[in-house]
């Protein structure tokens, strides 16, 4: 399986990594990136790892960290990362 990020997913990732880097330093930001890479590798082998969040759209969610939930969709042999959502926001802001 291949993994693709939507434009929003890419922007969310960059925003979170930049925030972590500014707030906690480059070492912690790199640890976040490595954890994401490890998660994506696991997701390639187990695409149904996340719970089904929006049945009619086939959108799954996975609690990646205490603050971040990843929403994605499986289409054929592709896994599409839709968004990395900061769970401290109001749930209505999810936009998935």
Brief sketch in words of this structure:
The chain has 2 helices and 5 strands. The chain has 96 residues and is an alpha+beta fold. The protein has one domain: RelE-like (YaeB-like fold), CATH 3.30.2310.20.
Description:
The chain has a single domain, classed as 2-Layer Sandwich (YaeB-like fold), CATH 3.30.2310.20. The longest helix has 20 residues. The chain is built from 2 helices and 5 strands; from the N terminus they run βααββββ. The model has no long low-confidence stretch (mean pLDDT 90). The chain is 40% helix and 31% strand. The protein is an alpha+beta fold. A 5-stranded mixed beta sheet has the order 1-5-4-3-2. The two termini are 22 Å apart.
Features:
96 residues, 40% helix, globular
Give the SSE map.
Elements lengths: L1 E4 L1 H18 L1 H20 L5 E4 L4 E5 L4 E8 L2 E9 L10
Parallel strand pairs: 1-5
Antiparallel strand pairs: 2-3, 3-4, 4-5
The main sheet comes to:
5 strands, mixed
Number of strands: 5
CATH class, named Alpha Beta
Distance between the termini: 22 Å
CATH domain topology:
YaeB-like fold
Uncertain ranges:
none
Cα Rg:
13 Å
Q: Tell me, briefly, the overall form.
A: globular
Helix count, DSSP H or I runs of 4 or more residues: 2
Strand order of the largest sheet: 1-5-4-3-2
Write the CATH homologous superfamily: RelE-like
Number of domains: 1
Q: What is the ordering of alpha helices and beta strands?
A: EHHEEEE
Fraction in beta strands:
25-35%
Structural class label: alpha+beta
CATH hierarchy: architecture: 2-Layer Sandwich
Tell me the helix content. Answer: 25-40%
